[in-house]
Prior knowledge:
Strand content: under 5%
Strand order of the largest sheet: 1-2
Number of helices: 15
Low-confidence stretches: none
Helix content: 55-70%
Distance between the termini: 31 Å
Number of domains: 1
Mean pLDDT: 94
Structural class: mainly alpha
Number of strands: 4
Order of helices and strands: EHHHHHHHHHHEHEHHHEH
Radius of gyration: 21 Å
Amino acid sequence: MKTIKFVSQDKQQHAFAAAVRKNVHNYFTESGLSTKGNFRLVLNTIIMLVLYVGPFVLLFTMKMNPWMAVIMSVIMGIGLAGIGMGTMHDAVHHAYSSKEWINKVFGGTLYLIGSNVFNWEIQHNILHHTYTNIDGYDQDIESKGPIRLSEHAPLKKIHKYQYIHAFFFYGLMTISKLVKDFTQLIVYNREGITRRYNFNPTLEYIKMVVLKLIYLFVIIGFPIMFTSFTWWQVVLGFLLMHWTAGFILSVIFQMAHVVEGTEEPLPNADGIIPNDWAVHQLLTTSDFARNNQFLNWYVGGLNFQIEHHLFPNISHVHYPKIAPIVERTAKEFGYDYNLKPTFRKAFISHVRRLKLLGQPAV
């Protein structure tokens, strides 16, 4: 993969980048706060783990009919999404705690959805956060079968109605990761990325296989062996749990990048994006529903995507406080700050963007 460089000759852009970092740094210095998580984050972690593990335990300890089991599966999916958006996301960005072993422990909650921490760090921390919304580099906007998320991707007939059918396929996100992790790791091994970060390719592959087998044995095997539900009822519950989690995660992720006002720039022939990296993040990300307290708590600050991309190593519990600082600094330097004021408006904007991406360019 060719390396992209962010090179700007605009002194205004460099000044903005320096100013926004300084202003946010001053906030933490003056308030005496750590940039890492606090009790609110720990409490969120406990609640989400209870929502995920609690219903699973109830399957073994109380008699319930299939419809009650369906409700338990949905609740598990809600908890699973919450773990991914808050606990795991902060931890893998080294923002959960100043102690690295704590970040590793809670980053490992990614294994609760059968996925792989190493793959996530490469795809999300490195590729997505470095090359945000750049087609061919940011895998979050690569075409996913019947869904076209990049204006530079090939347009197919099936994309015409993606603003309708995309939401069903969004639910397949975490299920597909169970298999996609293998092909991703093969690519990372082949391109030398695994060794570049001092990991053994063979060992990582073996570890992935073993952990996925353990996960499937526990989450599917145990209920089949120790509950009265048939194997197909257990599998359906497993799929429903993952579909719920995948739907929530995908919708939240896409409303931060695939909405009106976010750009999808391409590098020039020399592999250069003619913007400072910090300005690039402003152009390619969007905040939404910043005043929605429940959303701020549940989605792990992913509705503060601008702040997250500029300061990924700061815990999301601080985003509501630093967002006005970032917005004010952006406006002082004459840059747009893409904010959708409510969840509803952000969702509608995403639908409109999907519809536009499903049509030929005018």
